[in-house]
Design a protein that fits this description.
The structure is a homodimer of 339-residue chains. With 339 residues, chain A is an alpha/beta fold. Chain A has ten helices and 16 strands. In chain A, strand 9, helix 3 and strand 10 form a beta-alpha-beta unit. In chain A, helix 2 packs across helix 3. The interface between A and B is medium-sized, with 32 and 32 residues. Strand 14 of chain A pairs antiparallel with strand 14 of chain B.
């Protein structure tokens, strides 16, 4: 064990935290999470390899629930380094990565964090557009969907953190793009702000198959799957030959004790469809290429992004639970501190 | 219209046929098919582009039901040319392709048939090992599964026309291969004749998930899917990271009015699994390469094949229905004529 240098430590008398209190059964509820304040001393001593950070923004995404269930981790944050025991980081650096939902964190393996080199865009974007959801949209669309100009693309949960970007990437490539979302406000956003060719409110459609046939009379080449369940079943009836279904998430299923059955998988065979799940973690080596592509597009206004920012860590549980009922409009973020 | 040359015609006074009498509801039953004898005159006049053939063997495969339902075609046959109006075929040629289930057929587009150039193997093999099922196994395994030496491969309906070959291809590549089948006799075949590493009788397993965990403690890299439904659901729980599910068929579902629900698709995401349907029709350009690979393997005894031959066209309906209850052992064939 390395000797700890006690001279370089950060005293933190009070650290507000959101912790995962009890196992999620059925839907995620605020009661599964607890806001508490503990008293801690974070050390990032020279040579320790750790960094002590102050968290600025938290990301609330559907995948947080998978992180909670399968990796017992709450989600990703944007943070400022207060003290560094790692040669690659120094005080004042901005980073994003996975850590606790709390005011202050000690990150013992900061190699897993990304340093924020471009701070001339809103910092909160690194929870979304320029962070994990942005990379997810980029890798999922370009690396998994095998998209071609002129193809038809359907995106569910299209106004969410990932969907809004996938749609814009697809439009920039010259695809015909339709999205589904859960409110009139979101549908308007898709059509009027993100430039989708069409969009519908799935809650107002009695027959999802009919809605898809209306939007895609010739069928769907690419389905960017964020919801699963009944929507997936309806999409399977509308895929074109050699279509691709890229499974990014299945938010409609995460809160169910027993996932719904999907009945129309035989269409994978009849239409020779490729359905593929992916996780962004496998594509982080593309992050520099992604930034190189997207930063100019943001600055030129070719890519727009909508965020829904809740203020204060104590509002984190409600914000995260709200994502599963679609309460947020755009990417849900929690601001912990504006410093 | 081309003028018909009446000089080159084949008089056929009697033609026994199996026809698709009524729409299949639920399971395929013998009553859906009718054996009748009609009186016909088949013409394959010079310049007509058609060929008149005498059918020798009929193939009975699960996909026949999809052919019936979606293409109203009964299946593929092996035939001898009686008369040719097509420059590429001459009297006496042997061919295999899709036509009616009958003693004699007029094939108006013989370009869609394959000429049998190698008759030094049993002709019936062209309904299976060297025909559509063989090509299906070859294309599905090598072109869709992306197999690598040392990977673990699970094949359902493994003693069937396609499965027995996929398993042997996988063994030749150096994979660990397990198959499921529906009787002790078939399980013995898999282990003792086809060289599978292990096999189980799915009808005797109370818990398919447990059976798969027993056979694949480290999980499955490749699932060659022939059955769908509950087996697919159990496999989804046992896939390894970056596994591949190649959907060749879903025989357990073809006879259901409403397909079963598949509940564990979220594993496609968690394990980054690729699930892909394919139809052999897209891969026929590889047929010469396939023959080049497989003919020597047959002659050297590296590939073995088991057929279950029913004699007489009138036994065709029972043979085809039997495929869906797993009555056949090995590839089900109907011999129409031994000439």
């Amino acid at each position: 064990m390395e000797k700890v240098n006690k001279n370089a430590s950060v005293e933190v008398m009070s650290n507000k935290q959101v912790i995962y209190r009890e196992q999620v059964r059925g839907s995620l509820k605020e009661a599964n999470l607890e806001v508490r304040t503990s008293s801690e001393r974070l050390k990032a001593d020279t040579g320790s390899g750790a960094i002590a950070v102050k968290n600025l923004y938290l990301a609330c995404d559907p995948y947080n629930l998978n992180l909670i269930k399968y990796f017992t981790q709450l989600g990703s944050v944007i943070a400022r380094v207060l003290e560094s025991g790692h040669p690659n980081f120094k005080k004042g650096d901005l980073v994003w990565g996975l850590t606790g939902w709390e005011e202050y964190s000690l990150i013992t393996a900061p190699e897993t964090c990304f340093k924020i080199e471009h701070a001339d865009v809103p910092l909160s974007h690194y929870t979304g557009l320029l962070g994990m959801p942005g990379m997810t949209a980029y890798a999922g669309f370009y690396e998994v969907c095998s998209p071609k100009k002129g193809e038809t693309v359907f995106i569910s949960s299209a106004a969410g953190a990932v969907g809004q970007l996938v749609g814009q990437f697809a439009k920039l490539l010259g695809c015909y793009v339709v999205g589904s979302a859960g409110s009139k406000e979101k549908v308007d956003l898709l059509k009027n702000k993100f430039g989708f060719d069409d969009a519908f409110n799935y809650k107002e459609e009695l027959d999802l198959d009919a809605a898809l046939k209306r939007c895609f009379p010739e069928g769907i080449d690419i389905y960017f799957e964020n919801v699963g369940g009944k929507m997936l079943d309806a999409v399977l009836l509308n895929m074109k030959l050699h279509g691709r279904i890229t499974v990014c998430g299945m938010i409609s299923q995460y809160n169910l004790e027993q996932p719904e059955g999907v009945h129309n998988l035989l269409n994978l065979l009849l239409k020779r469809v490729r359905m593929e799940g992916f996780l962004v973690f496998d594509y982080y080596h593309l992050y520099p290429k992604f930034l190189e592509t997207v930063l100019p597009q943001i600055k030129e206004g070719k890519i727009v992004y909508v965020e829904d920012i809740a203020e204060g860590l104590e509002n984190g549980p409600a914000a995260l639970v709200g994502v599963f009922s679609g309460r947020n409009v755009g990417k849900q973020v929690v601001m912990v501190s504006c410093e």
